[in-house]
Amino acid sequence: MKTDCNVKELQFQGVGKRAVIGRFDGGTLTSDAGGLLLRELDERLRITERFSGCFTDYRNPKSIEHEVSGLIRQRVYGIALGYEDLNDHDELRSDPLLAVLCGKGDPRGDHRRCDRDKGKALAGKSTLNRLELTDAEADKDSRYKKIKCHGEKIDEVFVEVFLDSYREEPDRIIIDLDATDDPVHGDQEGRFFHGYYKGYCYLPLYIFCGDHLLCARLRPSNIDASEGTVEELRRIVSQIRGRWPKVEIVIRADSGFCREEIMQWCEENEVGYVLGLAKNSRLEKMIHEDMVDAEIMYRTRGRASRIYSEFLYQTRTSWCRPRRVIGKAEYLAKGPNPRFVVTSLSGDEVDARQLYEVLYCGRGDMENRIKEQQLYMFADRTSTSKMRSNQIRLYFSSIAYVLLNALRRLGLKGTQLAKAQCNTLRIKLLKIGAQIRVTVRKVWVSLAEGYPYKDVFITVWRNIATV
User: Fold this and answer.
1) In what order do the strands lie in the sheet with 192-194?
2) The dihedral of CA 57, 58, 60, 63: what is its sign?
3) 454 and 34 in contact (C-beta within 8 Å)?
4) pLDDT score, position 5
């Protein structure tokens, strides 16, 4: 049975003696009025502007209605507002509020060239997909898709935005590295079956400094989790030291990154490291006495017991030199739980307990940042057939995260949402109903009177004004 899409009234359960009737006749409304805050902050930090500079537009200037900068904003703001698919933009292109966010001087689309486009100020999916589907070899003589992405420039933008977030050079920064799975469900280029994740996936590499995203590299899953790490660190550290020559840099990661190549590079380039070390019989033997004592303590006190120790350790073949290892002899209700960390930091800098419990365990927050980007910024929408275009999709997702994180860090400081996740920010701060009225000289945005976070919204607006 076909759905009748021409129903003029929707009747709902009544209230007392009153009928409740719904109609789609409210006028020009939007559900994304909070996006004005995103644009306000973006104008000051120039995030999408710098991102747009990483694309070359080979289209005929006389035929262009949508500049690359506008297309970039439309896609990035769309993701930030919760619209993960290009298909969504065939409806969103008629939203005058999104047109305002993208800088359209004709937000209602009254003056489009073609009659079929009138009333639609923004680009549809067929135009937007050129941002991600243009070949790496494209030039002005290409027939169709002519908006070329330069990935190496985008990589620099992430680090540049991070550097600009500091007013002065810090004494130390800690860079976190991790790999995760990105499940795929088609025959995408570069997808392989991964035994640990028990499915076909990509294996992207993420690099963060605190909540700042420095790198999101899409990789095939038939590789070691640490592959490509040295290359990424080399360019990131070089860019950071170009601005901050005296900063102390420490990298932090789990045992998947405990590789001789990485540790040796760090030692040669004065970069500290704190890396998880997979347990083995030799390591367990070295903390055997501590483990016995931990078990006695557990059985005496009836609660988890931990004893920390440190020693020099070298593998039989893979390591070129002995290194400082922290051993944690832990006994829990479920039994022994030995753990190990290898580090270049000396005992004078940080003792064993603090290094493990504070420094190493602090990396757990990075996993929350990855989940934010994958789940709420739709980083897992890697469904095109080519790996290059999927990487570009990951770039868009990452820039949307950078923008929302900047809103959280700068706009929401001192508010109840200062530590909220991206999805919470979207629901409580960006998803606001408003009526849009476009006049000759102004665009009036009448926000919903019943919006419960008015005070937070105004505080964010004021905070952004001081950036």
Assistant:
1) 182-183, 199-202, 192-194
2) negative
3) no
4) 58
Tell me the CA distances in angstroms from 52 to 57, 156, 400, 431, one per residue in order: 10, 13, 13, 25
State the virtual CA torsion across 92, 96, 100, 103 in degrees, nearest 10.
70
List the Cα angle 46/50/56 in 5-degree steps.
Answer: 145
Reported as a single tens digit per residue, the pLDDT across 373-431 is 999 999 999 999 999 999 999 999 999 999 999 999 999 999 999 999 999 999 999 99
Answer for the pair 194, 177: CB distance below 8 angstroms, yes or no: no
What predicted TM-score, i.e. pTM, was given to this entire model? 0.93
Task: Classify strands 272-276 and 248-253 as parallel, antiparallel or unpaired.
Answer: parallel
Q: What gap in Å lies between CA 97 and CA 27, rounded to an integer?
A: 13
DSSP 99-149: HHHTT-SSTT-TT-SSGGGTT--S--HHHHTHHHH--TT--TT-SS--EEE
**CA distances, 279 to each of 42, 112, 351, 441 (Å):** 46, 65, 21, 68
**Helix H or strand E segment including 248:** strand 248-253
CA–CA dist 204, 438 (Å, integer): 44
354 pLDDT above the threshold of 90 = yes
Distance from C-alpha of 162 to C-alpha of 40, rounded to nearest angstrom: 19
* 83-126 tens-digit pLDDT: 999 999 999 999 999 999 999 999 999 989 898 999 999 999 99
Tokens standing for residue 354: 């603090």
Q: How far is CA 178 from CA 206, 210, 449, in A?
A: 5, 13, 44
Distance (Å, rounded) from C-alpha 181 to C-alpha 380? 9
What does residue 56 show for φ and ψ, rounded to 5 degrees? -110, 125
Closest C-alpha among 395, 413, 336 to residue 151: 395
Q: CB neighbours of 177 closer than 8 A, spacing ≥ 6?
A: 205, 206, 207, 229, 251, 252, 253, 257
- Report the alpha-carbon distance of residue 372 to residue 79 in Å, rounded: 13
Crossing angle of the two packed helices 151-164 and 387-406, in degrees rounded to 10: 10
C-alpha to C-alpha distances, 7 to 30, 295, 298, nearest whole angstrom: 21, 71, 69
**pLDDT, tens only, 198-210:** 999 999 999 999 9
Residue 153 or 5, more confident: 153
- The distance from CA 57 to its chain's CA centroid, rounded to whole angstroms, is 26
Which domains does the chain carry? 29-149+380-465 (no CATH), 152-376 (3.90.350)
